[in-house]
Amino acid sequence: MTYKQVYDAAQADPEKFWLQAAGAIDWFKKPTRALDDSNAPLYQWYSDGVMNTCYNALDRHVMAGRGEQTAIIYDSPITGTKDKITYADLTTRVARLAGALQQRGISKGDRVLIYMPMVPEALEAMLACSRIGAIHSVVFGGFAANELAVRIDDATPKAIIAASCGIEPNRVVEYKPLMDGAIDIASHKPDFTVVLQRPQSIAPLKDGFDFEWHAFQQDAAPAECEPMQGNDPLYILYTSGTTGQPKGVIRDNAGHAVALHWTMKNIYNVDAGDVFWAASDVGWVVGHSYICYGPLLAGATAVLFEGKPVGTPDAGTFWRVIEEHKVVSMFTAPTAFRAIKREDPEGAYVRKYDLSSLRVLYLAGERADSDTIIWAQNQLGVPVIDHWWQTEIGYPAVAIPMGLEQMPVKPGAAGVAMPGFDIQVLDDGGHQVPAGEMGAIAIKLPLPPGTLPGLWNAEQRFRKSYLEAFPGYYETGDAGMIDEDGYVYIMARTDDVINVAGHRLSTGAMEEVLSCHPDVAECAVIGVADALKGQLPLGLLCLNAGTVKTHGEIVAECIKLVREKIGPVAAFKLACVVDRLPKTRSGKVLRGTMAKIADGAEWKLPATIDDPEVLVEISTALQATGYALNKS
Ligand code: COA
Ligand code: AMP
């Protein structure tokens, strides 16, 4: 079938399409219907079906004779470690950990927070939770204790599973003190923690509260797979919104399993036994969907890479992994390729390796610039496919479905809408704009299976953030256009979210931190263009009268504060002091205009501006940071 036939079939009869797709996974009890719209505009999928995600990711492959196939290839240039874990071994390990968690009182519906670096045990912890129906919430290692505490208070986990440390090229990141600090700050206290001691840093453990990973599960009986209703939550993954309070995106069990399984073949063209590599981190949605669940649901082999595109040890590390493990499909963020291109513009490292196994490179997480795409295409000699999705959506909503039809790629476009996604571009009044015109990217409800059914404990926020701007649609927070052939172009965010090295960050959260500095009266954080990371946050600080410290001292303290409160991942290293912020007459800070000035892009004087002079002052202040290239 062609892409168009499949897309049209999903539009014409979604019920039939998604029930058919559901046949690809194993059920304890098959669902009688796909969509439950009884509580629209909140939707559920496969709610009367009964299944288990871990069973579908592990046990069923073992039963089908794939037990000896490698499930996970762990490749860690940063520690000099490699390992291969078969489906049979992984099932045994996961069942034992799950049994130990059960023994300690974790059961269906309980939350378990996971704070781990890129080690196989992180995937084991996720799968062990899903085996017994516990809801996992993985937190990215680059966040500080305070961010961890916010997530502990929101998810109220019974247990935390952590590693003693993560390893960055320039330092060992001690996770255990961060976790202890977070537990101290949080009002909610978990019952216990499980700590994987890594040789790079052995953490002191508190008797009866912190359990060492191996000792914890030594005598545990393996756990069976818990029967889960299709709409029972599988995980919560926090993502940045417009405020300091992150949004807890809920993922259900069955919709997620069905949708991810569908994407592995139809989008990524990956079959059971193929080696698939998503060079991301388990802390992000890409890691959830395409390091852990997607490849395993499809019976493929997942690469778990603990390293960086450059410096571990060099710009050839990606190519070494592809050659050594015979990767057929790779997925990463454009930033990773920009980093490699910067160090190896001529591709000398590329030519040192045999990349003949690689069929396609997929890029997502941020806008892919054409220079990077062309460079990657020329160097690798395979199609480079940009595709678009978000934490909320869980898997690609716009892509070129390589397993269905190798449609032409258009420069600047992220592809076409995937089945089940009726993507439209709307003006401020919620009307569809003509092809080729810019507007807000919205998706007609209901969203297909596997997308977010809601936010954890925050139904009103879910409605307000996503459903109210355009009734009958899901608001993506992205702006862009659709051309006459149906190709979707994602251009920018419509909110205060920025994308730094493929990491989604909230400028609002950074502003909240900066406002806590005693000398800061008012502030704004904007995203400015960066050749490597796509965007970088830049803070503009208005100070209280009578401060005794120098501007330099205050800027340095503010940078330190964001690192301490949000974490190094915020990459907040630029700030300057200004007298005033430009505002509209109603008091709204003109962040977008300031970002354009900083980037040297065309900008118009906003009609509603209170005092145009302020923009001149801002421009001068930005010039001093070396960021302003004001052309207008
Ligand atoms: N744990 C602890 N700290 C972390 C971390 C983690 N898991 N991940 C990143 N950090 C730290 C970094 O060490 C860095 O700290 P520093 O300020 O002390 O140097 C900081 O957070 C910022 O990290 P990053 O923005 O990633 O910059 P970098 O200079 O370390 O690396 C790249 C630059 C391009 C190599 C890196 O960003 C990269 O590989 N990007 C690929 C993007 C990606 O995989 N995105 C996932 C979504 S698909
Ligand atoms: P996250 O939820 O962390 O996956 O971030 C999702 C956001 O990243 C999207 O809403 C977009 O703003 C941006 N994004 C992801 N993929 C792309 C892409 N292919 N092109 C442009 N922006 C993208």
* Largest beta sheet: strand ordering: 5-4-17-16-18-19-20
Strand content: 15-25%
Instruction: Please give the largest β-sheet.
Output: 7 strands, mixed
Distance between the termini: 51 Å
Low-pLDDT residue intervals, each spanning 5 or more residues = 628-632
Structural class assignment: alpha/beta
Mean pLDDT: 96
| CATH architecture identity of the domain at 501-631 | 2-Layer Sandwich
| CATH-assigned homologous superfamily of the domain at 501-631 | ANL, C-terminal domain
Write down the CATH class of the domain at 501-631: Alpha Beta
Ligand species: coenzyme A, adenosine monophosphate
Determine Rg (CA atoms, Å): 24 Å
Secondary structure: helix percent: 25-40%
- Oligomer status: single chain
Structural shape: globular
Q: What is the fold named in CATH at topology level of the domain at 501-631?
A: GMP Synthetase, Chain A, domain 3
Number of strands: 31
DSSP helix count?
18
Q: What do you see in this structure?
A:
This protein has 632 residues and is of the alpha/beta class. The chain has a domain at 501-631: 2-Layer Sandwich (GMP Synthetase, Chain A, domain 3). The protein is built from 18 helices and 31 strands. The chain is globular and about 70 Å long. It starts with a helix and ends in a 7-residue tail after the last helix. The protein binds coenzyme A (COA) and adenosine monophosphate. Coenzyme A binds next to strand 9 and helix 12. Coenzyme A (COA) binds next to strand 9 and helix 12.
